[in-house]
Design a protein that fits this description.
With 318 residues, this protein is mostly beta strands. Helices cover 3% and strands 48% of the residues. The protein contains one helix and 31 strands. It has one helix spanning 11-21; strands spanning 33-37, 40-44, 50-56, 58-59, 67-71, 74-78, 84-87, 92-94, 104-105, 115-120, 125-129, 134-140, 142-146, 160-164, 167-171, 177-183, 185-190, 193-198, 201-206, 211-217, 219-220, 227-232, 235-240, 254-255, 263-267, 270-274, 280-286, 288-289, 297-301, 304-308, 314-317. The strands form eight sheets. A five-stranded antiparallel β-sheet has the order 9-13-14-15-16, with no helix packed on it. A four-stranded antiparallel β-sheet has the order 4-5-6-7, with no helix packed on it. The longest helix has 11 residues, at 11-21. The protein is flat and about 60 Å long. The two termini are 28 Å apart. Mean pLDDT is 81; it is low at 1-14, 95-107 and 149-156.
């Protein structure tokens, strides 16, 4: 049984609740989980009691009180009593992004901040509200929820990224333009600042379009730990949120964003990790190094691979 175990429940008994019903299940969301029995989906509560009977061909997770379901080929949204709230006719489809890169992603059928991203059969995007009303016309080439690049969560509020005529901008859930559609790209969002691209160069603007860091870099990462990685003429440097280069951190052949106070760097063909003072916490001696995944990073030296912790101590062979 594949299920997320809440800390308040015994893992084994929790899993048995789900597996009593199904071979497939969703994680619990808003106190309900979609489960399958005899080829049909329904919803149970954490006690294993059936709340919404098995009748659907597909069941999605609940978000903001509604869940996407499919029955007899028809897509709709139901509330926690199983009543249909939004019915999508054949002219709509749910916007699903299969190229989620970690910085932006569609809601994948979930309501977020009271709206649902939809597209028509011609591939034009718009927004529906909880009442199923089209609040933003189907006129955009692309609509996507903003994801905080540092916290990896959806941005609070009702602003979404849109694309039209090969230009990007921001609108709110009423369709009002928040950031003009004049950018070649909006690559990341963090700490209320956006990395944008114009004429092939990257810089940083706030949500009102005011320039914070001049658009002069070949590449620019999101703000993390009050700094960003900037690339110019193939040199990787660290700049602060005011655009001032942090000279003490050095110049590298490659540099990653700071994560939990450490950044992966490459210098002289070797990899290691520095802190935000530019000190090599993990020596720059490795032929290869990965970013940290939790408390461990994979490193390689002389063809031998092993894991190190954030103090650079060898933990286990790979």
């Amino acid at each position: 049984c594949l299920a997320w175990f809440p800390a308040s429940c015994e893992c084994i008994s929790y899993c048995k609740i789900l597996c009593h019903f199904c071979k497939r299940s969703n994680d619990f969301s808003e106190e309900l989980a979609g489960v399958q029995k005899n080829g049909k989906y329904g919803y149970i509560d954490p006690k294993g009691e059936i709340v919404i009977p098995f009748q659907f061909d597909f069941s999605g997770q609940f978000s903001e009180g509604l869940a996407q379901v499919i029955k007899d080929g028809k897509t709709s949204y139901i509330n926690k009593k199983g009543s249909e709230v939004i019915s999508l006719d054949d002219s709509y489809d749910i916007a699903v992004n299969e190229d989620y890169s970690g910085e932006y992603g569609f809601a994948n059928g979930h309501l977020t901040n009271g709206v649902l991203i939809v597209q028509n059969t011609e591939g034009r995007y718009g927004l529906l509200n909880k009442q199923g009303q089209l609040v933003v016309p189907l006129e955009y080439d692309y609509i996507v929820q903003l994801i905080d690049s540092e916290k990896m969560i959806e941005r609070e509020g009702d602003i979404v990224k849109v694309k039209k005529n090969n230009k990007y901008g921001l609108i709110n859930s009423s369709g009002e333009v928040v950031l003009p559609l004049e950018y070649e790209d909006i690559t990341s969002f963090s700490d209320k600042l956006l990395v944008v691209k114009i004429n092939g160069k990257y810089g940083l603007v706030d949500e009102k379009g005011r320039v914070v860091i001049d658009l002069k870099y070949d590449e620019l990462g999101a703000i993390s730990s009050n700094m960003a990685v900037a690339v110019k003429d193939e040199d990787y440097k660290f700049i602060n949120r005011c655009g001032v280069e942090e000279q003490g951190l050095g110049v590298y052949e490659y540099a990653g964003s700071f994560i939990d106070g450490l950044a992966l760097v490459r210098k002289g063909g070797k990899y290691g990790f520095i802190n935000n003072k530019g000190q090599a916490v993990i020596s720059i001696i490795y032929d290869f190094a990965s970013e940290f995944n939790g408390d461990l990073a994979l490193v390689e030296k002389g063809g031998a691979r092993h894991y190190v912790n954030k103090r650079g101590e060898k933990i286990a062979e790979h």
